[in-house]
UniProtKB/TrEMBL annotation:
Self-association and partners: Homodimer.
Protein name: 6-phosphogluconate dehydrogenase, decarboxylating
SUPFAM superfamilies: 6-phosphogluconate dehydrogenase C-terminal domain-like, NAD(P)-binding Rossmann-fold domains
Pathway where it operates: Carbohydrate degradation; pentose phosphate pathway; D-ribulose 5-phosphate from D-glucose 6-phosphate (oxidative stage): step 3/3
Protein residues bound to NADP(+): 9-14, 32-34, 74-76, 102
Protein EC: 1.1.1.44
Active site, UniProt feature: 183 (proton acceptor), 190 (proton donor)
InterPro entries: 6-PGluconate_DH-like_C_sf, 6PGD_dom2, 6PGDH_C, 6PGDH_Gnd/GntZ, 6PGDH_NADP-bd, 6PGdom_BS, NAD(P)-bd_dom_sf, Pgluconate_DH
Reactions performed catalytically: 6-phospho-D-gluconate + NADP(+) = D-ribulose 5-phosphate + CO2 + NADPH
Boundaries of every 6-phosphogluconate dehydrogenase C-terminal domain copy: 179-469
Gene from which this protein is expressed: gndA
One Pfam family, short name: 6PGD
Family classification: Belongs to the 6-phosphogluconate dehydrogenase family.
Length: 477
C-alpha cells in the first residue's frame, strides 16, 4: 500500500479534494460508488499527481498506508452511514474515517461513539469553501480524537488555505462532533453576513437611490476598509454584472426567493436548544423563508406603507456611510452570537474549543473569510475567557462609534418601509445587552402570577412567590 490518503465520493467536492491532495505530492487512493467517476478523475487529472483508482471497497482499503486515512465525501445523511457501514468492517484499530461532508454534529457524535469501541477514529471534519476551496485550499474544521489529529493534521494543513500570515486554515477543534458544530455555526454566520449585505444593498438602492453599478462601487470601496471580505467582494462583482439577454442589471432579473440547504436552520435550532440568542442568524434564516412565501407576499402587496422616496443626492452619500457603520456593527453582533453559541456548545459537550483558533482558521479558504476575523483572533488571544466580542476594547469602540449611525439606518429603514430585520435585531440585541434593567423583571412577575413560577429579588437571596389570588403577600418559595 502506498496511498497516504483515500477519498471516496468523487462528486465536485471529493474530486477537488483528491486533486488538492495529489497536487501537494500525496498519493491518493480514489473510489466512488459509480466507478465511472473514479476512472474519469484518474484519466483527466492523472498528470496532476499520483492517484490509485479502486473499484471495490477492498481494493480501496488495501491501497492505503497504515494507519489508514479514508475521507468520505458523499451526500450527508443516509449515504454517509451507508459508506461507513461498508468500510468500517475492513478497517483496523488506529485507522481513521474522515467525514468531510456537511453532517449534522449530532450524527457525527453518534457515528464517533459507534466506531470508538472498534478503535477506528471517526473524524467529523467541516470543510468550507465550496468546490473552488476544495481544490485550491479550503478552511478545514476537524473534530475527533487528538491522536487522530496527530496523524491526519499535517496532511489537512498541507491542503488547507493559508491565512495572510501563512498559518494553515485548519486546526483540531475538539472531540467527536466539535468540528461539524463549528462548521455549522460558520454557515449560520454566513447566512447572517449575506443577509446584512443584502439589507445594505436594499437601503442603498431604495433609500439612497443608488443604481446597482453605483452600489457595486460603494461595496468595492468598503472592501478596502474594515469590511474587507470575500462576501463583500463577490457582492460588488454580482452588482456590477449585467444580464446578457436583457442588458438589465443581473440582480434585477433574478427571482427574489432565496433558497437554503439547511445548515442555517440547524444553527438556529441548536441555538434554541442551548438557550443562546442568535437573533441575527435567525433573522437571516427567516428572511430567506419570507422571500420564498410567494402567495403570502402577493396577498400583502397592497397593504399601506410609506410611498417610495429617495434621499436628496447630497444626503445619500452621508447615508451610505451610515449604512457602512450599521453593517459593521451588525456584523460584530452576528459573530458575537455565533461565538457565544460555540462557547455554549463547548461547555455543554465538554469540547474546550479555542475560539481564537476558530477565528484564525476562518481567515482564509471559507465563505466568511474576512480581514475582521483577525481582530476576533486577537481578541480571544488577549483574553481566552472573553465573555463576548463586545467585551473587547477594539470591538466595543468600533461598535460604540457606529451606534449612532446604526440607529439612524434602522430608523430610516422603518420610515421608508424597508425591511431590515438583520440590522434591527442586531441593534436590539446590543441595546438589550447594555441595558441596566430589562423588562424581564415584568416577565417574571407575569410568570409568577399565572403559574406560580417564583422570582428572585434584587435585594435579597432566595426564591419568592406572591399570593396573587389571595392577599398578595409574599412568601418564600
Ligand atoms: P453530493 O452531496 O452531491 O453527493 C454525491 C456523492 O455521493 C457521489 O459521489 C455519490 O455517488 C455519492 N453517494 C450518494 Br448520493 N449516495 C451514496 C451511497 N448510498 N453510497 C455511496 N455513495 C453515495 O456531492 P458534493 O456536492 O461533492 O458534496 C459532498 C459533501 O460535501 C456533502 O456532504 C456536501 O454537503 C458537502 N459540501 C459540499 C459543498 C459544495 O459546495 N458542494 C461545500 C461544502 C461541503 P455516485 O456518483 O455513485 O452517485
Amino acid at each position: 500500500p502506498t496511498a497516504q490518503i483515500g477519498v471516496t465520493g468523487l462528486a465536485v467536492m471529493g474530486r477537488n479534494l483528491a486533486r488538492n491532495f495529489a497536487r501537494h505530492g500525496h498519493t491518493v487512493a480514489i473510489h466512488n460508488r459509480t466507478a465511472a467517476k473514479t476512472t474519469a478523475l484518474a484519466e483527466e487529472f492523472g498528470h496532476e499527481g499520483t492517484f490509485i483508482p479502486a473499484t471495490t471497497a477492498a481494493e480501496f482499503v488495501a491501497a492505503l498506508e497504515r494507519p489508514r486515512r479514508l475521507v468520505i465525501m458523499v451526500k450527508a445523511g443516509g449515504p454517509t452511514d451507508a459508506v461507513i457501514d461498508e468500510f468500517a468492517p475492513l478497517l483496523e484499530p488506529g485507522d481513521m474515517i474522515i467525514d468531510g461532508g456537511n453532517a449534522h454534529f449530532a450524527d457525527t457524535r453518534r457515528r464517533e461513539a459507534a466506531l470508538r469501541p472498534s478503535g477506528v477514529h471517526f473524524v467529523g471534519a467541516g470543510i468550507s469553501g465550496g468546490e473552488e476551496g476544495a481544490l485550491h485550499g479550503p478552511s478545514i474544521m476537524p473534530g475527533g480524537s487528538p491522536e487522530s489529529y496527530e496523524s491526519l493534521g499535517p496532511l489537512l494543513e498541507d491542503i488547507a488555505a493559508k491565512a495572510d500570515d501563512g498559518t494553515p486554515c485548519c486546526a483540531h477543534i475538539g472531540p467527536d462532533g466539535a468540528g461539524h458544530f463549528v462548521k455549522m455555526v460558520h454557515n449560520g454566520i454566513e447566512y447572517a453576513d449575506m443577509q446584512l449585505i443584502a439589507e445594505a444593498y436594499d437601503l442603498l438602492r431604495n433609500v439612497a437611490g443608488y443604481e446597482p453599478a453605483q452600489i457595486a462601487e460603494t461595496f468595492h470601496g468598503w472592501n478596502k476598509g474594515r469590511l474587507d471580505s470575500y462576501l463583500i467582494e463577490i457582492t460588488a462583482e454580482i452588482l456590477a454584472h449585467k444580464d446578457a439577454a436583457t442588458g438589465k442589471p443581473f440582480v434585477d432579473v433574478v427571482a427574489d426567493a432565496a433558497e437554503q440547504k439547511g445548515t442555517g436552520r440547524w444553527t438556529v435550532q441548536t441555538a434554541l436548544d442551548l438557550g443562546v440568542p442568535v437573533s441575527g442568524i435567525a433573522e437571516a434564516v427567516f428572511a430567506r423563508a419570507v422571500s420564498g412565501h410567494g402567495e403570502l407576499r402577493r396577498s400583502a402587496a397592497g397593504l399601506p406603507g410609506p410611498h417610495p422616496s429617495v434621499l436628496d443626492p447630497r444626503d445619500a452619500a452621508r447615508f451610505a456611510d451610515q449604512v457602512e457603520q450599521a453593517l459593521y456593527a451588525s456584523k460584530v453582533i452576528s459573530y458575537t452570537q455565533g461565538f457565544h453559541q460555540i462557547q455554549a456548545a463547548g461547555a455543554e459537550y465538554g469540547w474546550d474549543i479555542d475560539l481564537g483558533a476558530v477565528a484564525a482558521l476562518w481567515r482564509g479558504g471559507c465563505i466568511i473569510r474576512a480581514a475582521f476575523l483577525d481582530d476576533i483572533r486577537a481578541a480571544y488571544a488577549a483574553d481566552p475567557a472573553l465573555p463576548g466580542l463586545l467585551a473587547d476594547q477594539r470591538f466595543a469602540t468600533g461598535v460604540g462609534e457606529a451606534q449612532h449611525a446604526w440607529r439612524t439606518v434602522v430608523a430610516s429603514a422603518a420610515r421608508h418601509g424597508i425591511a431590515a430585520p438583520g440590522f434591527s435585531a442586531s441593534l436590539a440585541y446590543y441595546d438589550a445587552l447594555r441595558a441596566e434593567r430589562l423588562p424581564a423583571a415584568l416577565t417574571q412577575g407575569q410568570r409568577d402570577y399565572f403559574g406560580a413560577h417564583t422570582y428572585r429579588r434584587t435585594d435579597r437571596e432566595g426564591s419568592f412567590h406572591t399570593l396573587w389570588g389571595g392577599d398578595r403577600s409574599e412568601v418564600e418559595a
